[in-house]
Structure formats: C-alpha cells, structure tokens
Fold this sequence. Notes:
This protein starts with a helix and ends with a helix. It has three domains: 136-216; 227-450 and 458-537, Cytosolic phospholipase A2 catalytic domain, CATH 3.40.1090; 542-568, no CATH class. Helix 11 (240-253) runs antiparallel to helix 14 (284-298), helix 11 crosses helix 21 (509-525) and helix 11 (240-253) crosses helix 22 (527-537). The protein has 24 helices and nine strands. Helix content is 55%, strand content 8%. The protein is of the alpha/beta class.
Amino acid sequence: IGHWVHFQLCNRQASADEKKAHNTDHGSTDLLPMSDKTSPGSATAAAPVSAPSSKKGIGHYLSYSGDTVQAFVGSYIAPLVPRFSRAAAEPKSAAVEQKRLKAEEAGEKPWQGEVAVNTEQKAAEERAKRLLLQREKIIARVSVDNRTRALVKALNRASDVRVYINRVEELSYHLLEFPETRGVAVKEKAIPCLLRLRQAEDPSLKAAVREALTLVGYTNPVKGQGIRVLSIDGGGTRGLIALQTLQKLEALTGKPIYQLFDYICGVSTGAILGFMLGVFQIPLNECEVLYRKLGSDVFKQNVIVGTVKMGWSHAFYDSETWENILKEKMGSDLMVETSRNPKCPKMAAVSTIVNRGTPLKAYVFRNYNLQPGVRSHYPGSCEHKLWQAVRASSAAPGYFQEFALGHDLHQDGGLLINNPTALAIHECKCLWPNTPVQCVVSLGTGRVETAGKINTTYTSLKTKLTNVISSATDTEEVHIMLDALLPPDSYFRFNPYMNEDIALDESRGEKLNLLQAEGLRYLDRNQEKLQKAARILTRDKTTVQRLTEWAKLKHDMYDGIPIFNSKL
C-alpha cells in the first residue's frame, strides 16, 4: 500500500511539472511576477528563477481534488477512528430531529415515507450499537486471554526465587480477577510449570504455587484410600454435641481432625466449627472454650432492646457486633489463601441466597476451584473472605440480619440445607471424580420429637408455620436417603435425641452442661459405631495406589516437554 501511495504522489508531481513546462514554452505570462507582465522587454534581463523543491508535505497532496488518494486515506483512517464518523453523523441526526419538531409545531403530519426512514434509521443505529458492544467484548476477552498467556510464559523465564514468587502471585491475582481464563492457563501448560516449581525448597514459593494451582483448578490426590468427608449440621450453640463426637473420634484415632478428613463442610454453626478445626486447626479442648465464650458474647441481649431491633431490622441480636467478632478472630484472609497451608483440607460453608427469586438457591463458599469444564450444581466462589463466609452462613432469620455480598443477599444455609452431607458428597465427586468414597461422617446437633394434640378438624396457623419450618430444616430425611444409597460401612450419622428442646441461642451454662451430658450418654451407647468409623478413617493407601499417584504426578509435571513425550 505504501508503494502504491508513493506511485500516485509521484504521478501527480510529474503531471504538475509537465503543465508548468508547457506553459513556459508557449510564452504564458500567468506564472511570471507582476513586474514581468508590465514590462515584457525586461524578461531577458531577469535573474533565472530557482526550481521548486521536490519535497512536499502530506497536506499539499491532500489539497488536490482527486479522489484516489483521499479515498484511500479516508478508507484507511475511518475504521481506526469510528468516533469521527459517529460525531459527523450526530449533527445530521440532530438536524433531522429539529426539522421534525418544527413540522410538529406547525401542525404538519409527517409523511409515511419519512416515518419509515426514521424507523429504519433507528433500527440501523441499534444494530450498530449491538455490533460495537459485541466487538468491545471480543477485544476485551482477547486481551485478557493474551495477558494470561504472557503470565504463564513468564514463569519459564524467571531466574531468581523472588522473581518466581512475584510472577506466581501475579498469575494468582489475574486468575482471581478473571476466573474464566483458567482454561487458557491450562492450555498454556501452567499446571506442569507450577508442579515443577512446587519442588523448590523455598517455603514462600511453595505456598504461592499451592495457591496458584488451586486457582487453576488442580486438585491433589486424597490422603487415604478414598474420599473422607466430614459434614456438620447447623444448630447454634447445640454445636457442642458435634464437638463431643469429634473429641471421641480424635481420641480413638490419635490424629487431629484436619488429618482425618479430605473435605469438611458445615452450615451455620457447623461452618464455624469446620473453620476452627480445618483452617485454624485449633485443638478440640480450646475449641469448646472458645465456642462457649463466643455464644455468651454474641447471644447476650436485653429483651426490650432485642424486641425493638426485631421490629426495626428483623434481627434480635446485634449483627454488627457479630461481624466485628468474626473479623477479629478470622482476619481478612480469602478462602483460597487457606490452600497455602498443605495441611488444610478442602473446606466449604453453605448459605442461602434469598434475592434471586424462587426456589431458593444454596451458595457454597469454597477454598478450592473446580477443574475447567467441571461444573457444580451449586454456585459458589473461593474469592470471599473467611469471615464473610461464616457471616453469610450463620445469618439466621430473626437472629441476625441478612448479609449483603455483591449483588446477593445471604441468609442461614439451614433455611435450605441444614444437613449438607449430600452437598458435600456432590462437591467431592466434582473434585475427585475417579476416587471412591472411603468414609462419610455426618454430625447432627440434636433432635427432639414432640407429641402434638390430635385434632382431625383443623390446625392453627402457628402449627402450620411450625410444620413448614420443621420440614424445610429436617436433617433426617437426607440421612435416610444417604444411608440407602452409599456403600455399606462407609456412612456414619451421629445425631442424638434430646429430652429438652434447647434453643439455638442458649448461652446459660447449666443448659449447655445438660446438653453435653445427654450427648455423652448417646455416644456411650454408640461406642461400637464410633470405633468402626475410626477404623475406616485410618485406612492407609495401598502400594499400588501410591505408585499410580507417583506416576501420574510425574506425567503431570513434565507434560508438554518434547523429550518426555517422545519416551512415552
């Protein structure tokens, strides 16, 4: 194109020179100065005029009336600056609109043809807007994908540990901001590169690599023969019963809870216990002390003040106080940042989204990402903070205000799924699709059977509402289905009957002691069941499993390297 433009410009210059020479040969005086026109005889005495310079500006050539060069330049520049064309079209449309308004003021009716033209013009403008928006989205997606490729390739060009850490963390930030680019990172062989970096000795680099692998969707193999799941129901301060069961399991196995399970899932108070044991890895004895103190700090409220709050914010207790306690205890770490600790299992907290219409939707706060192409039935994310996950999962209606997070309003997960065992198994099969289930331990927070009065004519409104709430939060129906579907000797449910219905916000010491006493009696009666669960939880991998996982790890580490692939 550049040669063609130069050729056109040279032709125009040559034609101009020929025209000038022709006029000079025929004695034309139009090109002479005014003094020469008045005195022809002095032409021979005049000094020779120097030839004009052959260097011309681009403005000189564009001043010609020819169509060729202007058409070329116009067609080349117009696509690059579409705003110029839109700005030029705006005065025209404004003039047409002004003319139409004047015609309406004069009482004139627009012609049918003019109406049709306006309709077509509006349709064309709408199409242009849609195309422009689509083009901007495509350009944005292409630029984000190119950025992902550049970040992955930069990992192979680092030469220092600090540079490696910075580039791995930069990739992690990018994947957090644009999670849809995980597929591009996988195609660019990010996983083999990160797995090789994980073999480094520097602990900071290894921690950053673990987080990046989690964001990409890579999942380490389970620690036992199969998947080991812990599920904890909601139930307020009645969660002390679940703590007692875990203390028994820890005593029988000799291992802490975070080493016994590959996946821990909880709702409301179950999420609090799960994070204490799995994320912060607090000993069980300290957990009980903290749990009692937490209940006394949160569930203390004057009845009159609480009643006023209930009418004002639909919450009996101070939600801001609860949030401040969570921020103080859990800090500002993101869910995904827990993957930096190699001892931390996969964690999940469940809430209920209440502003997306019906039916209500369960939301899973994860500390992991699924592989690209694998989709869970439940929406969720790993980009939220730990305290936000617990706050959303424990927003029980009537007790705390609903929790706004982004565009969603979260309430207690127990509104929809108070027993998250089935959800936990579903998530595990998304993480480890080819691994069997080794053991599932489901912990309840106590149940009470009440005998109502038999009335064959009608039921009161209070009874109707109580029945609806009880059926919605029933945990035993899930237990019955799982007990029939899961393999034998792999599912264990612990949920004792209680002589008294203990409230969710009970914080009196004598009531909590009574609760624990009934829990201990239940565990004594089910000692054999506990021992069986402990034996299954502590089964180690076979030699074949270890060799298979080692071979797969080496294959994943060197995938994409030509020498390794040629040997295979």
